[in-house]
Write a structure and sequence with these properties.
about 325 residues; globular; 10 helices; alpha/beta; 4-stranded antiparallel beta sheet; Rossmann fold
């Protein structure tokens, strides 16, 4: 049984233009996937494709327009009040910016202990402090005692991100949603934080939805990769299969620009032309066809949903071209 199941999830935003016209932004436009306990699924795509909106919708920080989200076989779409609060103990989120997600007036101990207070756990201070120390150590901050009385401005960027991870871990959740958790860090520190997340996967069997724009980072420890473009998943499969045998032209373009040390293994760079389409005005047919280097006439007229994921993970445009 899957820990998380997402079925045809949509999140649209309504707005008005300067001329008073009603417009709809289709940020998440029909997403489906599942996630097993202890599995890491990397969600990859360029800025503006809807990755963060999807994360916020899964957390019920944004109300979905339609579709269903099941957690442990129970629907969590649109939860409110006590039920939503209870869900927060099982699903936690690691935000992209550690500078914005930490209260500068609180000590590290107070920041990490706050979720325990909110949920009424570890009410005795010695027990609460012990759980805070364990969370900090699991996040790679050793010895934990040396960090308890510090404030965020006294830490490096990598240490701050570890505090964010510790605050998410202190409730011992089953699922972590990590939204670009290393994008603001130096390369050397990225490797350390990714190592922390990989350790959590192996030692705690924590499932993760790892959101990134970098396929190279996703390849580090993800079990599967889902490639997202303009509100939809266009390719999904085992990490090795997606990296070695990408099917969708968009995935091929993303992989082509990843630096490879061995010159014999380098791919020819595929540079996409034009800007990503506006999610207010989705192109007809295949939504990637205006930028696709191998598009044919029928691509602009017919859109075929992604029907096969897993071992062959054929993308919609290839199904159309071969039909």
């Amino acid at each position: 049984m899957s820990l998380l199941e997402v079925n045809d999830l949509h999140k649209h935003f309504s707005l008005r233009s300067g001329l008073g016209q009603s417009l709809t932004v289709r940020a998440v436009d029909g997403i489906s996937f599942d996630l097993a306990q202890g599995e890491v699924l990397a969600l990859v795509g360029e800025s503006g494709c809807g990755k963060s909106t999807l994360a916020l919708t899964l957390m019920n920080l944004e109300v979905s327009t339609s579709g269903k989200v099941l957690f442990n076989a129970k629907e969590i779409t649109g939860l409110k009040g006590r039920a939503l609060k209870d869900l927060r103990r099982e699903i936690q989120m690691i935000f992209q910016d550690p500078y914005e997600s930490l209260n500068p007036l609180m000590t590290i101990e107070e920041i990490v202990a706050e979720p325990l207070k909110v949920h009424g756990l570890a009410k005795a201070k010695p027990e609460r402090t012990q759980r805070v120390k364990k969370a900090l150590e699991d996040a790679g901050l050793n010895p934990a005692e040396s960090y308890l009385n510090r404030r965020p401005h006294e830490l490096s960027g990598g240490q701050r991100q570890r505090v964010v991870i510790a605050a998410a871990l202190v409730l011992e959740p089953s699922l972590l949603i990590a939204d670009e958790p290393v994008s603001m860090l130096d390369v050397s520190i990225r490797a350390e934080v990714l190592g922390v997340l990989e350790h959590l996967k192996l030692e705690r069997s924590v499932a993760m939805l790892f959101i990134t724009h970098d396929l190279g980072t996703a390849a580090h420890f993800a079990d599967r990769i889902a490639v997202m473009y303009l509100g939809r998943i266009v390719e999904l499969g085992e990490t090795k299969e997606v990296l070695e045998n990408p099917q969708h032209p968009y995935t091929q373009a993303l992989l082509s620009v990843i630096p490879v040390p061995n010159p014999r293994l380098r791919r020819k760079h595929i540079i996409l032309q034009g800007d990503p389409p506006n999610p207010i005005h989705i192109p007809s047919g295949c939504r990637f066809h205006p930028r696709c280097p191998v598009a044919i006439a029928s691509c602009s007229k017919t859109e075929v949903a992604l029907t096969s994921v897993g071992e062959n993970h054929q993308a919609a445009c290839l199904l159309l071209r071969n039909s």
